[in-house]
Amino acid sequence: MSTSEFDALNRQHALPGKLAFGPGPGGLAVAVVNNSHASAMIALQGAHVMTWTPHGQQPVIWLSRAAAFAPGKSIRGGVPICWPWFGPHPSDAKLPGHGFARTVPWEVVESRSLRDDRTVLVLRLAETEATRKQWPHATPVEVEAHITVGTTLEMELVTHNNGSAPVTIGDALHTYFEVSDIREVKIHGLGGCPYLDKVDGGSRKQQQGPVTIGSEVDRVYLDSTADCLIEDPRWRRRIRVSKRGSRSSVVWNPWTEKAAKMGDFGTRGYLNMVCVESTNAAEDVVNIGPGGEHRLWVRYAVEPLS
Ligand code: BG6
Q1: CATH number of the domain at 3-304, out of 3.40.50.1170, 3.40.50.150, 2.40.50.140, 2.70.98.10?
Q2: Residue 228 C-alpha to ligand 1 middle, in angstroms?
Q3: Which is the most buried residue in 49, 116, 253, 264, by most CB within 10 A?
Q4: Does residue 22 carry a pLDDT above 80?
Q5: Contact 70/60 with Cβ under 8 angstroms?
Q6: Dist. CA 57–CA 92, nearest whole Å
Q7: Domain boundary assignment for the chain
């Protein structure tokens, strides 16, 4: 984006002292938020929240120190938006994993300060020849990301079906959370849920008690609608993940070998992160009727551990 394009964006959507647009890492266009509650950085490519830190806290969102920032490349860490499918495309292996939304430009639709000083940014996926080619339906759809930055981070992904035929989508807010040391962390809220274990050929199992991680974990939890709590005793905090419009959750940590193969994780990055993803994945995809919409909403909150 050129200086004059940034100037135009700032004239229309900057909020003095709270929100400004400019070049970020790798020259990617970013929105920088700093209000009385928190700071955050959001890349317009992918509507990708890269950082969110309530003042006085450790970062809540993990961003890889080895992340690549380049047009068309997904960023390792933050909150990638997976849309309109989750994981590999169901029938065409040539299409990108987790859909195309995370690697294309989104447009700024709106920005505002709420009375309590939280900052709202609304972005819309820009339709281009490239997105039209990858969208698997003839029906036109529109997708928006509503991001609210405060002492909590709220995100809502809204998919409108503007056509006359139903569409099926999968989606996810694929959030990487920062933790002190994954080996000491417990994830509550998934006990009793069935899950598909992708590290064990997709076999179906059932979670007993909290999730702990000491090797590669890649699981799609089904029938998961309760809050997930990421309990981090060393940092004496837990991160509460609340959600609506999602009946599945993914827990992922690549551990040593897979992280090394990925090349953008850094050497010890896997120890400081866990993905707890609010999803519509696997058998939990969403059908949206003509004129209908689907809303995937999450709220992340940091709570002290007593
Ligand atoms: C998770 C998947 O959601 O994302 C994993 O369950 C995958 O299987 C991971 O490896 C990262 O995906 P990507 O495409 O960002 O490397």
Answers
A1: 2.70.98.10
A2: 19
A3: 49
A4: yes
A5: no
A6: 43
A7: 3-304
Pair of tokens at residue 172: 């996810």
Find out whether 288 and 304 touch, Cβ atoms under 8 Å: no
Q: Report residue 94 as tokens.
A: 């040539």
Atom of ligand 1 nearest to the CA of 80: 15
Ligand 1 closest atom vs CA 219: 6
pLDDT greater than 80 at residue 225: yes
**pLDDT at residue 136 tops 80:** no
Does position 86 have pLDDT exceeding 80, yes or no? yes
pTM confidence score: 0.97
Sign of CA dihedral 266, 1, 296, 111: positive
Per the prediction, the chain carries an average pLDDT of 96
Strand ranges of the sheet holding 19-23, from the earlier edge strand across to the other edge: 19-23, 29-34, 38-43, 48-54
Dist. CA 277–CA 111, nearest whole Å: 26
Which of 91, 29, 243, 252 lies closest to 153, judged by CA?
243
Using CA atoms, how far apart are residues 75 and 191, in angstroms rounded to an integer?
31
Q: How confident is the model at residue 129 (pLDDT cuts 50, 70, 90)?
A: confident
Catalytic residues: 174, 277
Between the CA of 87 and the centroid of ligand 1 the distance, in Å, is 7
Gap between the terminal Cα atoms of the chain = 47
Probe residue for ligand 1, chosen from 250, 273, 274 as the CB with the greatest number of ligand atoms within 8 Å: 250
Q: Please tell me the distance between residue 161's alpha carbon and the centre of ligand 1 in angstroms.
A: 27
The number of helices, as runs of H, and strands, as runs of E, in the chain is: 3, 22
